[in-house]
């Protein structure tokens, strides 16, 4: 299925929020060209270990840039802007995306009005920290702090904590993905392009569904609570004989099933029959459950809970997640034709027909400016001498 193969994306991208978005689009089969400054490039190319023993291809960069092509171009140079206009026309760019600060849009010649004049049906996407009217610098942890995500993460009496994954970055990418799909539908239906502005801050706050309503409407104090749940009990991490298990009891019927088992019979008390009673005494109840679970192995508990159809899971390490049958069958791979290095990549949220056709194999993350010769030379018609001069001037 190649419904997206003729969609071309030119993305002035760096860091995580936009590269993850275009990684998702590449997994659908779209043609993604990542655009970088010819001197500085994407800083993430230099983060992590130098696993390939070469410049600008460090480990952190390799995680979310497979399936793309790479161009370098100085958009602040008049010649660079001329080349950029040529790219929009000759590549027949459907989607232009950037995570530059808004103050740079006009200076670099990448603002929506200018691109719309070149290609009227273009879909323009700007990802920013706080919206198109703000030039405030934003990194993922700053957004976690300001949006309230950090306030609701961590132990009840401990310090606020960052999430284990960069949700403001990756959540914004997911929201951008949805907006792009809507814009493609709109263009198909009407022939019109779109100007899409997405704020990482607004994206992050949108996840606070329960905290916002409970706070604003019902005046409840919502804050971090460790591994327990604000409204359900028992829901927490419990120690086992050989590790930890997460147990989630979501209603009174499930609780009755649990305490009907001999192992938990001592907890079958009238005051615990209703969720409200269990929540009221959550600290003591969790201590009592821990006293039972720590005498049994994780596998014994999983077998019991699976038999009575109650939710439970071992707290898995990342290596254990990788060999989970549901994960293993969806992992994506990418092999470097130069060094033979084989990357294992995270699967998409849902497997795409494009990846299935490729047997889940993506092209290797592109080296810095890897497609300069191909695109500037063959497509735009610049001679070798022209390219050498532009490289010498650091335009490309």
Q: Can you describe what's shown?
A:
The chain folds into two domains: 262 residues, 3-Layer(aba) Sandwich (Rossmann fold), CATH 3.40.50; 82 residues, formyl-coa transferase, domain 3, CATH 3.30.1540.10. Helix 1 links the parallel strand 1 and strand 2. 33% of the residues are buried. It is built from 18 helices and twelve strands. The protein has 396 residues and is α/β, with parallel strands linked by helices. The model has no long low-confidence stretch (mean pLDDT 97). The strands form three sheets. A six-stranded parallel beta sheet has the order 3-2-1-4-5-6. It is 38% helix and 14% strand. Helix 1 crosses helix 7. The chain is elongated and about 85 Å long.
Topology:
Elements: E1 8-12, H1 17-27, E2 31-36, H2 59-62, E3 68-72, H3 78-90, E4 95-98, H4 105-108, H5 112-118, E5 123-128, H6 140-147, H7 167-190, E6 194-199, H8 200-205, H9 209-216, E7 235-240, E8 243-248, H10 252-259, H11 275-280, H12 282-293, H13 298-307, E9 312-314, H14 318-322, H15 325-328, E10 332-335, E11 342-345, H16 353-357, E12 361-362, H17 372-379, H18 384-392
Helix pairs in contact: 1-7
